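Course assignment 3, question 2. Fill in each field.
Student: A.L.
Task: Predict the tertiary structure for the chain below.
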Amino acid sequence: GGEEQAAAATLFVLLCVQLGGGDEAEECFKMLRPLFSAILIDGGANVSARQSCARALGMCCYVSAAEDGEMVRSMGKLEAVFMSSYPNREGVLPATKPGHPALCGAALQA
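Answer field:
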């Protein structure tokens, strides 16, 4: 469930930091980045898991993303999280979903 996903994302950040910016961390991140991205953009996923995946994307990009394109794609996913809170063309703000402000904060902090 969501608690396990959140714990796994947090543990992976610690692993990336421990491995440093080497090839091993980069390969692990390349493998798990699509999973973290999928959980992050899944509106039905557990909010805690989405927050942890946002932090994992940001931290692991900083530590182990060697390719600029990979970093830009990850940052785009994080940006999409808080862009959903922007006013629409008429200037009306969308209804706030439970946990969404904390998720936006995690995406911005990442």
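Instructor remarks: DSSP finds five helices and no strands in the chain. The longest helix spans residues 23-41.
Grade: pending
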